[in-house]
């Protein structure tokens, strides 16, 4: 046990639900429409004027895509191992390292080796991205810039600019990526910039 009473656990549910909703950029009306729970009930639940019940938390858990234990802040029990679920997209493997909705999402990205250079296909979307190269040489296109990053180098950019990631030399690349929507940015403070442009 973590030392909290049942009342203290329940009192923390409302603020947690409000933070999840705001982190997703949703209004009470949006949540009500998606879950079938009335706006007034959601408002009272978030403000602590109404106690959480399983009937109320289940649709919210599905909407926010978080386990019930996370909604109530229950202490973790049982198997301490984290079961990561890799996703393969456009030939690259993404391993999610964070589960909370909203805010900054962390994942490990693995770009496989390939005998022929990939044809860049820059994309744009809302948000900001920070990446750190763990292994291999990464080719990063951002706007008009064509960069090569080696292990230990990092980059940060606005994803509304056309951008593309790939292997710089045909060998596999591994990197850590932090991605935030709605201008949420990760910040790394180090010495002077040492990145090299390689067009």
Question: Can you walk through the features of this model?
Answer:
By secondary structure, the protein is an alpha+beta fold. The chain has helices at residues 6-11, 13-23, 28-35, 39-47, 54-64, 68-72; strands at 87-89, 92-96, 104-111, 128-135, 138-142, 145-149, 154-158, 163-167, 173-180, 196-197. The strands form 2 sheets. It has a 6-stranded antiparallel sheet, with no helix packed on it. A hairpin with a 7-residue loop joins strand 2 (92-96) and strand 3 (104-111).
Low-confidence stretches: 183-191, 194-199
SS content category: alpha+beta
- Written as H for each helix and E for each strand, in order along the chain, the element string is HHHHHHEEEEEEEEEE
Shape: elongated
Q: Please summarize the sheet with the most strands.
A: 6 strands, antiparallel
